[in-house]
Write a structure and sequence with these properties.
The chain is an all-alpha fold. It has one domain: Hypothetical protein af1432. It contains ten helices and two strands; from the N terminus they run E-E-H-H-H-H-H-H-H-H-H-H. The protein has a two-stranded antiparallel sheet. Strand 1 and strand 2 form a beta hairpin. Helix 2 runs antiparallel to helix 3. It starts with a strand and ends in a 6-residue tail after the last helix.
């Protein structure tokens, strides 16, 4: 039976079922419900933008996009976005998807915290970022009807979400602060890690080994 939420069909395929089970079993309820909302909001926002992303690829991108915040996916030496991107890419390749399809999902996850750029790329990449920005930042929330929002949050509630996702971000990369250089993630550490100061781009240039 096909599951439909807010007029959005969850693809009834083996890869979607396996991705759902994997993320549900290996992450946290916070990440799982957020990721499903990202797929749903991303699909709804794509419709408003006139985009038609491949539902399976968008679903996998949404489900894996924050896996780099938590074990067993979290690494110590790179951006959390890359952790999730690599896991999703490997997952799709192991399920017979092409290198190009897997790379599209890799890019969608790798860029999902980068403003503007994803909207100039493939529909799956744009829709992933749109879903993230809707659920986390409330951007373009007015493009979705009250009924659609109610249906999505009824299926995947977001109680205390703002505090919990900020805690998940902090826990996800406080141990690798250098990986936040030049990203919005540095803002999180400045708010919640005592004494942390982001690596300043101007300082890097002025203190570089180049002679003047």
């Amino acid at each position: 039976m096909i599951e439909t939420i807010a007029g959005v069909e969850i693809p009834d395929t083996k890869v979607v079922a396996e991705a759902t089970d994997l993320i549900k079993e290996t992450t946290t309820p916070l990440i799982y419900h957020h990721s499903r909302r990202v797929f749903l909001f991303g699909t709804l926002q794509a419709r408003e933008l006139g985009l038609t992303p491949d539902p399976e690829l968008l679903y996998v991108a949404a489900l894996f996009h924050d896996t780099g915040l938590v074990p067993p996916y979290r690494s110590d030496d790179q951006r959390f976005e890359l952790d999730g991107a690599e896991q999703a890419q490997a997952f799709l390749l192991s399920h017979g998807y092409s290198e190009a399809e897997a790379r599209t999902v890799w890019t969608a996850i790798a860029l999902h915290t980068t403003p503007e750029v994803p909207y100039k790329l493939e529909p799956e990449i744009a829709a992933t970022t749109a879903g993230v920005e809707t659920d986390v930042l409330g951007l373009r929330l007015g493009a979705i009807t009250a009924g659609e929002i109610e249906a999505v949050t009824a299926a995947h509630p977001r109680p205390d979400f703002k505090r919990q996702i900020l805690r998940a971000f902090t826990d996800g990369f406080a141990h690798r602060p250098d990986s936040t250089f030049g990203t919005v993630n540095a803002d999180v550490l400045e708010h919640f890690v005592p004494g942390y100061r982001h690596l300043d781009f101007v300082d890097v240039i002025q203190n570089s080994p180049w002679p003047e």
